[in-house]
């Protein structure tokens, strides 16, 4: 063999070896990255190649799948009562991705989750049958809250205090996820994303707002736990009116004739006395109020139910005047309806906060459990306050409903406790205030109980008609009634 032929042969051999190395590199090392690349259309085709698994409420699916026409994506998502359950399900769109439970459990719902695969599927490269996501939502509670909110802009959350199961999760205005589930829904998408009322924002979980006077429960808990007062019926040292420290600004009460001077905690909650809780926050100091708020769940960065809730905030680095304002749920204090439901739930549960969650289990196509979340509350919750403090605050909350600012939440024959709130909105309170109500109900005849928080951002009512009792408490009452089966 002459030199030229030998060199050519060696060169060809090196080229073949280089090609083999490259193919091996792509197949073995880069293959998974290429397969998982978001621009790989095969992934989307595989995702919608079969009917999706379902999100289940009380044994029945609230989702479905529909055969498409003229598309390489064979099936698309459908929703039963989409507007009613959108705050729970989120959406699954062929064009815009997936959110909330649809997004978190997309692998289970489209059959790509590794837990769904059996050995035969792996060997044959076959796509597994999709699984289902079973929620804790009670359809009666969900419907009651949704209908009670009506055309108001707001949200409601209902929790079982003992288990932490979320029984209802509603955000209004809502939207129908079916209208954006395909590939040709651009007009509907633009209409939703451009709507000034932001119907796609989950207000129950992801829109923290000033909680107003509902936060006074946290301040009262801090005072009792600190030993500053032995009971809710001990008189406080609370001048009325109260001048914010270092300023000439007077913190006045909504009801000028209310007996708020040196009022007991029970009376101060009953009449929602700003002077009492503003002074109390200053006397306790921001660190103690913050510590108590954090026990209830404020400042938690990752609160997953399993949808991640936005952080509710109690601020730091304030002067005394600002600390006083936090005592009435203003300044930079913010909370989601979920957070304020957690406050009432902990007090209803003897001072222990069960982990809130809205998924009980995840199953495969045959109904076998892949992930069991139903027992999250069985192990006992985190101790927030003593059972004595919880009992005293429940007693005061009952007084609020029976005799004070929360009378619209009464349910005959049932122990109902609550706290109203009207939070300032806009510079110098120039916009319509937010109406809040957080509460619990216990039916001793059945053993059923529930904690509920409601916020109404905008009802269309005149500013003078906005109050926690007038707008939010009736919604909470209907929600609690449904949870108790009344």
Our count of domains comes out at 2
Task: Report the C-alpha radius of gyration, rounded.
Answer: 28 Å
Number of strands: 20
Relative helix content? 25-40%
What structural category arises from helix and sheet content? Answer: alpha+beta
Discrete helix count: 17
**Largest beta sheet: what is the strand line-up?**
2-1-7-15-16
CATH architecture of the largest domain: 3-Layer(aba) Sandwich
Strand content: 15-25%
Q: What is the global morphology? A: elongated
Largest sheet: 5 strands, mixed
CATH superfamily of the largest domain: DD-peptidase/beta-lactamase superfamily
Mean pLDDT: 92
- Poorly predicted tracts of residues: none
First CA to last CA: what distance? 98 Å
CATH class of the largest domain: Alpha Beta
Mind sketching the topology for me?
Blueprint: H1 3-36, H2 41-47, E1 55-57, E2 60-61, E3 63-67, E4 75-79, H3 82-89, E5 92-93, E6 97-98, H4 100-104, H5 106-110, H6 119-124, E7 132-135, H7 139-149, E8 153-159, E9 166-172, H8 186-194, H9 203-206, H10 216-225, E10 242-243, E11 250-251, H11 265-271, H12 274-284, H13 286-296, E12 303-304, E13 308-309, H14 320-326, H15 337-348, E14 352-353, E15 359-363, E16 369-372, E17 382-383, H16 387-403, E18 415-423, E19 434-443, E20 448-458, H17 468-483
């Amino acid at each position: 063999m002459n030199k030229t032929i030998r060199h050519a042969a060696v060169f060809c051999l090196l080229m073949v070896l280089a090609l083999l190395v490259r193919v091996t590199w792509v197949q073995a090392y880069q293959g998974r990255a290429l397969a998982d690349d978001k621009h790989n259309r095969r992934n989307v085709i595989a995702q919608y190649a079969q009917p999706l698994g379902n999100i289940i409420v009380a044994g029945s699916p609230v989702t479905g799948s529909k055969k498409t026409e003229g598309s390489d994506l064979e099936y698309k998502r459908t929703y039963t009562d989409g507007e009613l359950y959108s705050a729970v399900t989120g959406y699954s769109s062929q064009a815009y991705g997936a959110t909330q439970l649809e997004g978190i459990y997309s692998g289970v719902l489209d059959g790509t989750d590794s837990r769904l695969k059996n050995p035969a599927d792996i060997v044959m490269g076959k796509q597994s049958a999709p699984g289902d996501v079973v929620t804790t939502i009670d359809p009666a509670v969900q419907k009651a809250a949704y209908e009670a909110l009506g055309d108001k802009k707001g949200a409601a959350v209902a929790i079982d205090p003992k288990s932490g199961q979320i029984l209802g999760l509603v955000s209004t205005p809502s939207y129908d996820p079916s209208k954006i589930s395909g590939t040709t829904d651009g007009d509907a998408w633009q209409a939703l994303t451009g709507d000034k009322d932001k119907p796609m924002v989950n207000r129950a979980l992801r829109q923290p707002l000033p909680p107003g006077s509902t936060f006074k429960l946290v301040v009262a808990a801090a005072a009792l736990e600190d030993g500053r007062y032995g009971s809710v019926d001990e008189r406080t040292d609370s001048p009325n009116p109260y001048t914010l420290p270092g300023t000439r600004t007077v913190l006045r009460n909504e009801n000028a004739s209310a007996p708020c001077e040196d009022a007991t905690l029970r009376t101060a909650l009953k009449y929602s006395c700003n002077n009492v809780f503003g002074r109390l926050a200053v006397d306790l100091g921001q660190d103690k109020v913050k510590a108590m708020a954090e026990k209830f769940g404020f400042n938690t960065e990752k609160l997953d139910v399993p949808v991640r809730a936005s952080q509710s905030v109690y601020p730091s680095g304030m002067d005394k005047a600002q600390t006083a304002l936090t005592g009435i749920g203003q300044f930079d204090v913010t909370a989601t309806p979920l957070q304020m439901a957690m406050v009432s739930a902990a007090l209803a549960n003897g001072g222990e906060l069960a982990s809130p969650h809205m998924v009980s289990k995840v199953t495969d196509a045959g109904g076998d459990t892949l992930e069991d979340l139903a027992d999250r509350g069985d192990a006992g919750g985190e101790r927030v306050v003593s059972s004595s403090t919880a009992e005293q605050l429940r007693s005061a909350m009952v007084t609020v409903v029976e005799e004070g600012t929360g009378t619209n939440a009464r349910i005959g024959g049932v122990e109902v406790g609550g706290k109203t709130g009207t939070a300032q909105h806009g510079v110098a309170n120039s916009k319509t205030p937010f109406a809040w109500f957080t509460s619990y109900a216990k039916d001793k005849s059945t053993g059923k109980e529930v904690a509920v928080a409601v916020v109404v951002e905008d009802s269309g009512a005149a500013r003078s008609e906005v109050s926690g009792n007038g707008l939010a408490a009736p919604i909470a009452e209907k929600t609690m009634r449904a949870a108790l089966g009344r």
